[in-house]
Amino acid sequence: MLALEISKNHQQRIDSGFYSQFCRGKGLDYGFSGMNLSAEVTPALPNAVGIDLNTQGYDGKNIPYPAHYFDYVLCSHVLEHIEDYQYALRELHRVTKVGGHIILMLPHAYLYDKSLVQFGAWDTCPEHFRLYTPARLLREIEESLAPNTYRIRFMEDNDRGYDYAQKLYDHVDYNNDIFEIVLVLEKIKPPKWSIIGYGERVEEIRVSWFVKRWRLFVYKLRRLKRKLL
């Protein structure tokens, strides 16, 4: 049995080739039970191992696998339940191989919450720490992962079968409505150069720039001096 959220689009992702494109090789289904810590729930794909809060060796924060271990990581409706999203995203990135994919699926604030205010139209999931729009998710990724260590390969607002006729305060049909953001990152090998203005490289870049400007000034001064002599 699959967790509810991943099951609603499972066959469509098989038929469309989504899984075959992004979930090849050895995978990790992160938080695979979907809040149902039952032994009956299985990872979404047969080539994936599942990790959840009751997994032996998992402390709820540090994924108990070495770096660059998995070809893909699937994280379906989990990130919104994690307070420290930066650490979680870095862990997902750490255990993914270069060239592998991180697949994130989260409830869409415009479809599930119908609000940009925490517990807005209706309060049914107090364990959600954040509401997500595509822009918010992209911002969190940029805050969490170093530039040029990943690329976005796929993103969509997945509203297949969503009932737009429902009223604002109507509860979504949790068993049938689809109300998610889907985003796929590819982990890449970073270049030898660093982005100007990022992190600890800022001061080094600033010093290097002033050194180059000073050397250019001295060079021009010497040329002027030779002309005057």
Structural description of this entry:
Helix content is 31%, strand content 19%. It starts with a helix and ends with a helix. It folds into two domains: 184 residues, Vaccinia Virus protein VP39 (Rossmann fold, 3-Layer(aba) Sandwich), CATH 3.40.50; 36 residues. A six-stranded mixed β-sheet has the order 2-1-3-4-6-5. It is α/β, with parallel strands linked by helices and 229 residues long. The chain is elongated, with a radius of gyration of 23 Å.
Question: Could you name the key traits of this structure?
Answer:
229 residues, 2 domains, elongated, single chain, Rossmann fold, alpha/beta, six-stranded mixed beta sheet
Provide a concise account of the structure shown.
The protein is α/β, with parallel strands linked by helices.
Detail the topology: elements first, then pairings:
Blueprint (H helix, E strand, L loop, with lengths): L3 H4 L2 H7 L1 H5 L4 E4 L17 E4 L18 E7 L8 H10 L1 E12 L1 H5 L20 H11 L5 E9 L21 E8 L13 H28 L1
Parallel strand pairs: 1-2, 1-3, 3-4
Antiparallel strand pairs: 4-6, 5-6
Shape call = elongated
Which spans have pLDDT < 50 for at least 5 consecutive residues? none
CATH topology grouping of the largest domain: Rossmann fold
Structural class: alpha/beta
| Tally of strands | 6
